[in-house]
Amino acid sequence: MTTCRSVELTVDGEVLAVPLADPTESLAQMLRRTGRTGTHIGCANGDCGACTVLVDDRAYKSCVVPAWRADRSAVRTIQGLAPGDAALDPVQRAFRDEDGFQCGYCIAGPIMCLHALLRHDPAPSEDAVRSSLSGNLCRCTGCQQILRAARAAVSQRPDPSEDVDG
Ligand code: FES
Ligand code: FES
Questions:
Q1: Sign of torsion, CA 54 90 41 16?
Q2: Is the pLDDT of residue 166 over 50?
Q3: What does the pLDDT look like over 64-84, one tens digit per residue?
Q4: In the chain, which residue ranges form alpha helices assigned H by DSSP?
Q5: Strand, helix or coil for residue 34
Q6: Most CB within 10 Å of its CB: which of 78, 114, 143, 159?
Q7: Strands 6-11 and 14-19
Q8: Residue 85 has what pLDDT?
């Protein structure tokens, strides 16, 4: 990839050409400009995970990814997981049912990391689940509720071959 003034990419299935605000704009900032405000910016330093999105099916902390690096990529945000306003995807449902969040500010991070994990490992071990979540900080739940929700998301997954991203 090279630097560019406009980024062409797919975000949550929508093909976009987005002019860069400036050469140092982060992917998180750009996504929020396109209305993906579910991608939260907490630390803006790669520490908390709140800004996590999938880029070509891998989880990235989008606050430390220059927007131009996503040129010609497929990005999926927390807002692209559920098929409609009235529905939740299975991982989101598990977090809701298991009280996996409180204020919700951090929660896109764990959920997107779990999606990335499940795309590459449909039946992950406890260690793999913990490892996938290790880059996420939550100031509300003490993380035990997140772990419980993550285990539920893995165990309740109806069919390991199902595409959790719908
Ligand atoms: S906002 Fe990106 S890691 Fe904290
Ligand atoms: S639910 Fe509030 S920071 Fe995690």
A1: positive
A2: no
A3: 999 999 999 999 999 999 877
A4: 27-33, 90-97, 108-120, 126-133, 144-155
A5: coil
A6: 114
A7: antiparallel
A8: 66
| Cβ of 111 less than 6 Å from ligand 2 | no
- In a 10 Å sphere around its CB, with 0-12 CB exposed, 13-18 middle and 19+ buried, how is residue 107 labelled? buried
Ligand nearest to the CA of 61: 1
Query: Can you give the pTM of this predicted structure?
Result: 0.91
The token duo for 129 is 């689940």
Among protein residues, the one with the nearest Cα to ligand 2's atom 4 is 138
Q: In DSSP terms, which residues pair with 11 in a beta bridge?
A: 14, 75
CA 119/CA 114 separation, integer angstroms? 8
Given the CA of residue 102, which atom of ligand 2 is nearest to it?
1
The answer to whether the beta carbons of residues 113 and 135 sit under 8 Å apart is yes
Over the stretch 38-55, which tens digit does the pLDDT of each residue have? 999 999 999 999 999 999
CA distance 128 to 133: 9
Residues near ligand 1 (Cβ within 6 A): 41-44, 46-51, 61, 63
**How many whole angstroms separate alpha carbon 105 and alpha carbon 113?**
15
